[in-house]
Amino acid sequence: MAELQAFLEIDSQIETHLVLSTTTKYKDALDIVRKFSVCSPQKFLFTKVDEASNVGTIINLVCQFPTTLSYITNGQNVPDDIELADPQKLANLILRD
């Protein structure tokens, strides 16, 4: 972790995104975010939104940490399945739950 932190300190203009799977249990995702907090991630990117039974982890983490949501992925066809996080789409996913 120290190596990664040192690498990120080389250039303060580097925008860091913490990538998490939407299928990760909230408690585990919370542990991951805390461990990577030393790297000061600025944004979250959530994968496997199409495979998750709910999106509560996304909402909880975005509300709990001073980090914005940048992108989500819906499928295996990268980069075609990466999309900007859209509040309306996220609201629809929440209501689906």
From TrEMBL:
Membrane-crossing residue ranges in chain numbering? none
The name of this protein is Flagellar biosynthesis protein FlhF
Spell out the InterPro entries in the cross-references.
Answer: P-loop_NTPase, SRP54_GTPase_dom
Gene3D superfamilies, from UniProt? P-loop containing nucleotide triphosphate hydrolases
Instruction: Write down the SMART domains for this protein, in alphabetical order.
Output: SRP54 (SM00962)
Molecular function, one GO term: GTP binding
- What keywords are assigned to this protein? Cell projection, Cilium, Flagellum, GTP-binding, Nucleotide-binding
SRP54-type proteins GTP-binding domain: residues covered: 1-96
The processes (GO biological process) annotated in the record are: SRP-dependent cotranslational protein targeting to membrane
